[in-house]
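seq:
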Amino acid sequence: MSGKQANGRARRPAERVHEEVAGEPGLVRTTPPFQWGMIYLLARIFYGMRNRCEDALRPYGLTPMQFTILATLGRWPDLSSAELSRRFDVTPQTMGEMIGNLERRRLLERSQDPANRRALLLSLTDDGRELVKTCNAAMGEVEAEMLSGLSQRELKDLRVRLGALHDHLGLQVS
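struct:
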């Protein structure tokens, strides 16, 4: 889309510097005309990625957070709402509302924890598992498009470095 992003917002042209990437013949990197701070750069990338994810998930009636909850339950079934709220750093009330919406759509279900009769465990329904599978494919397309300008070596290096930053910050795997 020339001049507009998928979400309809106009893009502002930025002056860019084109430089050949060392050790990668024919690969040209486009850089901004100034040095960005790391927090600013990571935030810009996050918001750009979030917008693309929202666009990809919209046809399925999911937000990125709802998809992440479902994908997490696909990886680790039988988590409680309290465990999810801690993993995603949201209040139990907020998580309860999100879970209620997903449960009404019959994408997840609650069952009693055999070890604690007061706790309810969450798991995906068949419809939830199918939707996660479909949305994983859509997210894979977003990721492939987003990272298409990087070489295999750069992708591997980026994954290692982001993983190290994730671990350094003490973030939990979701």
